[in-house]
Design goal:
39% of the residues lie in helices and 12% in strands. It is of the alpha/beta class. α2 packs antiparallel against α3. The chain binds glutamine.
Length: 491
């Protein structure tokens, strides 16, 4: 049996039924990673010893008939901007290359509480800043469907690992699209939850008012299962939502029940902006929902033209403050030959951060400076509010908004990396959901002219993830991509 083709839910059930042991699954996966990771570069670090010991323990408990957690024995991987007490937490940055975190992120604790086996840490754009994982400071990740193309970003390692069958599910973080866009490029499911639904404790902060952790998985059912585990109030995160606002939900429960009387919003100008293959795939998806009885409503998002600009003010402003803590004194890398104490700060930061991170710190510092605060930062906050209202208006009448996830399929290495603006425009469809705090999911919906996967995005109002997953599942069930493992990664 080829274990890498199985979904998380299938593997979980087989381990629980004692048809497979966690140890054999974990060993098979480690061997697969060993064979493929040199070419793919999805993992920065593996916790082989830890996870084999953990797998053995869980097998014993299952054998003894003990009640085990919802992910018992299943290997899951983590984007390397979430802290783990094993190994390093690097954010794929030279400045944190040797950083060992003293505690686990809340999401990691939650996975452990459900008996998952944490197999390793996955590559990303440095500090999650990017759309292609080309900004990674500690390694390169390729797209499993074609190794001359990028996996998307910033959770490129997470998407590539799930897509190539090198883990059964992964966690990513999404500040402007970093779960959904790589999911779309690699042909997997990626979900960004409502802001505050998943604890950010232990997630290295990029844009604190935008960042959310979420799952990447082979299908929506697996994503729902991971959502069950990672959501919930956390007193350690002051932006985490209370149980009253966001009650614990079983996202898997009704996922197979199609929705009746569904009203789907589309913004024709959005779809017009995408490449031909994307337009065609989205058109077909819209027709699919119509054939299932959904009403399709054409709507406008009047402020969406400003979303990318607004995001790059808010995100960089927050990043400039968040990254001030990496100063050569408190964390990570310190320059080897500082001439005086100022040099400790400036040289450590200069040598430790990559070009994109520096660009963002400068942009954010500028936007927050006293002369420009009102003109840039404050204005951006006002536009952010207008974007929020655009969504509110749509969700008054409609269940969801359907858009492409990205304007195209995965592009080649180097195609956009010299032009930051081109790269920033990659996020045109995903960024608004972060600005508004609403959830979004990307699911596979076809292929482009280069045979690269394409994704469509379903966005709903806050707290509607269960409905969002049901809508996505309706399409997925009749267009199943979940057992496809790209040929390129199997060479
Ligand atoms: N691509 C966007 C950026 O570079 C989004 C990143 C993210 O979501 N972490 O900021």
């Amino acid at each position: 049996m080829d274990l890498t083709k199985k979904t998380l839910t299938e593997i979980r059930d087989k381990i629980a039924a004692q048809e497979l042991t966690s140890l054999e699954v974990t060993k098979a996966l480690l061997a697969e990673i060993e064979a493929k990771n040199d070419k793919l570069g999805a993992y920065l670090e593996l916790f082989a010893e830890h996870c084999l010991a953990k797998a053995e323990k869980i097998d014993k408990r299952i054998k003894a008939g003990e009640k085990c957690g919802a992910l018992a024995g299943v290997p899951i991987a983590i984007k390397d901007n979430m802290t783990t007490v094993w190994g390093k937490t690097t954010c794929s940055s030279k400045i944190l290359e040797n950083f060992e975190a003293p505690y686990n992120a809340t999401v990691v604790e939650k996975l452990l509480a459900e008996d998952a086996v944490i197999i390793g840490k996955l590559n990303l754009d440095e500090f999650a800043m990017g759309s292609s994982t080309e900004n990674a400071g500690l390694g390169k990740t390729a797209n499993p469907w074609d190794s001359s193309r990028v996996p998307g970003g910033s959770s490129g390692g997470s998407a590539a690992a799930v897509s190539a069958g090198l883990c059964y599910g992964a966690l990513g973080s999404d500040t402007g699209g970093s779960i959904r866009q790589p999911a779309s490029f690699c042909g997997v499911v990626g979900l960004k939850p409502t802001y505050g639904r998943v604890s950010r404790y232990g997630l290295v902060a990029f844009g604190s008012s935008l960042d959310q952790i979420g799952p990447l998985a082979r299908n929506t059912q697996d994503a729902a299962l991971l959502m069950n585990v990672i959501t919930g109030h956390d007193p350690k995160d002051s932006t985490s939502l209370s149980e009253e606002l966001a009650p614990k939900t079983d996202f898997t429960k009704d996922i197979d029940k199609p929705l009746e009387g569904l009203k789907i919003a589309v913004v024709p100008e959005f779809i017009e902006k995408a490449g031909e293959a994307v337009k065609e795939a989205i058109g077909k998806a819209v027709e699919f929902y119509r054939s299932k009885g959904a009403e399709i409503r054409e709507v406008k998002m009047p402020h969406s033209d400003y979303a990318v600009a607004t995001y790059y003010i808010v995100a960089t402003a927050e990043a400039s403050a968040n990254l001030a803590r990496f100063d050569g004194v408190r964390y990570g890398y310190r320059s080897e030959k500082p001439e005086n104490y100022m040099d400790v700060y400036t040289k450590s930061r200069d040598e430790g951060f990559g070009a994109e991170v520096k660009r963002r710190i400068m942009l954010g510092t500028y936007a927050l400076s006293s002369g420009y605060y009102d003109a840039y930062y404050l204005k951006a906050l006002k536009v952010r509010n207008l974007i929020r209202q655009d969504f509110k208006y749509i969700f008054k009448d409609c269940d969801c908004l359907l858009t492409p996830t990205s304007p195209s399929g995965a592009f080649k290495f180097g195609e956009k990396s010299d032009d930051p603006i081109q790269m920033y425009l990659e996020d045109i469809y995903t960024i608004s959901a972060n600005l508004a705090g609403v959830p979004g999911v990307s699911i596979p919906c076809g292929f482009d002219e280069n045979n690269m996967p394409l994704g469509m995005q379903i966005i709903t109002d806050t707290f509607q993830e269960a409905k969002m997953l049901r809508i996505a599942r309706m399409f997925e069930k009749e267009h199943s991509y979940e057992n496809q493992i790209p040929e390129d990664s199997r060479e």
